[in-house]
């Protein structure tokens, strides 16, 4: 066998050995799709379960485009555990992070860690504190509704059912959160315009039982209040129970915010006058799509800023 033939046979053998590796290489390239983490607040709150389900449906429909890791915390004030979840996502080397922070300030330091690790971060539901972001030298785009505007829609509807001078009370969410503050401001805007007197603002921590206790205390301290404005529907559920226990059903109006399924029968029978729908199933999706676009365009976090306002809608018993 001459030298030329021997070389050809060796080359063919090398090529034959290399060919089976090609599908494996293609498979590895396919597997390199981005991994996006969704970190929410309390999954005991129906609003965030709806958000999670919406995100999972979106990922299922776009399974070839990205993988999703969804996490939540045990209750609305479990800030320490939410920080740990973000730290776990950093270790897991996710490509993007969509977060509804339990606290507008306390999560900022760990978000900076995520950004420093090269993770694209988008903020949903509860906006990060601008001063806290500035202090850490980072920018995080906010994708979500104008909470003040949404609460004013609800408050304006309530205002049509009460008179100038009537006393009302506000049950606020966790007071350190931006969306709680904004909803309270929206309620106050509407009540001020109507000439109603806000006699009490207390935190119900976004949850049913604390909301119930706060509402009961308000009714006891101010037996002549005409309405309770709750910063979310969980607290509105608690307020409805307190109104009934006080023997004031039909005499004290209750409004909420979020349009969870549990509130719908109460809208229908009048126990709750109105709420606001901020489309929980789509909120995370808007954030995920913002992350995916930034990754596709190879943008850096520092080039992402501002807010993408999503819709919020008044819901009453007559809404379709």
Describe the structure.
The protein has a 6-stranded parallel beta sheet with strand order 2-1-3-4-5-11, with helices on both faces. A 4-stranded parallel beta sheet has the order 7-6-8-9, sandwiched between helices. Residues 3-31 have low confidence and may be disordered. The radius of gyration is 25 Å and the shape is elongated. The longest helix has 17 residues, at 178-194. The protein is an alpha/beta fold and 320 residues long. Strand 1, helix 3 and strand 2 (67-73) form a beta-alpha-beta unit. It contains 12 helices and 12 strands.
- Tell me, briefly, the overall form: elongated
Structural class: alpha/beta
Largest sheet: 6 strands, parallel
H and E string: HHEHEHEHEHEHEHEHEHEHEHEE
Number of helices: 12
Radius of gyration: 25 Å
- Proportion in helices: 40-55%
Note the gap between the termini.
Answer: 86 Å
Number of strands: 12
Residue windows where pLDDT falls under 50 for at least 5 positions: 3-31
The whole-number mean of residue pLDDT values reads 91
Q: Describe the strand arrangement of the main beta sheet, using strand numbers.
A: 2-1-3-4-5-11
The proportion of residues in beta strands is 15-25%
């Amino acid at each position: 066998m001459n030298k030329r033939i021997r070389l050809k046979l060796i080359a063919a053998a090398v090529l034959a050995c290399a060919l089976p590796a090609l599908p494996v290489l293609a498979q590895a390239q396919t597997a390199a799709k981005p991994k996006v983490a969704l970190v929410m607040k309390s999954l005991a709150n129906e609003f965030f379960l709806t958000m999670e389900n919406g995100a999972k449906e979106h990922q299922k429909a776009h399974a070839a485009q990205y993988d999703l890791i969804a996490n939540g915390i045990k209750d609305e004030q479990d800030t320490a555990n939410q920080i740990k979840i973000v730290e776990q996502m950093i270790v897991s080397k996710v490509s993007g992070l969509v977060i509804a922070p339990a606290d507008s300030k306390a999560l900022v330091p760990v978000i900076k860690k995520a950004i420093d690790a090269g993770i694209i971060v988008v903020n949903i539901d509860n906006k990060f504190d601008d001063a806290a972001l500035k202090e850490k030298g980072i920018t995080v785009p906010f994708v979500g509704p104008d909470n003040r505007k949404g609460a004013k829609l609800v408050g304006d509807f309530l205002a049509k059912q009460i008179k100038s001078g009537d006393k009302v009370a506000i049950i606020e969410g966790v007071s350190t959160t931006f969306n709680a503050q904004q909803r309270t401001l929206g309620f106050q805007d509407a009540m001020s315009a109507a000439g109603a007197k806000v006699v009490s603002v207390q935190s119900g921590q976004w949850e049913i039982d604390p909301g119930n206790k706060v509402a009961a205390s308000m009714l006891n301290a101010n037996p002549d209040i005409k309405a309770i404005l709750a910063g979310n529907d969980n607290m509105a559920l608690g307020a409805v129970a307190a109104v009934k226990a006080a023997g004031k059903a039909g005499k004290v109006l209750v409004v909420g915010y979020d349009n969870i399924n549990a509130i719908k029968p109460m809208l229908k029978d009048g126990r709750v006058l109105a709420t606001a729908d901020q489309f929980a199933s789509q909120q995370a999706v808007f954030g995920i799509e913002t992350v995916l676009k930034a990754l596709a365009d190879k943008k850096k976090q520092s080039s992402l800023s501002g807010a993408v306002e999503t819709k919020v809608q008044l819901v009453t018993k007559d809404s379709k």
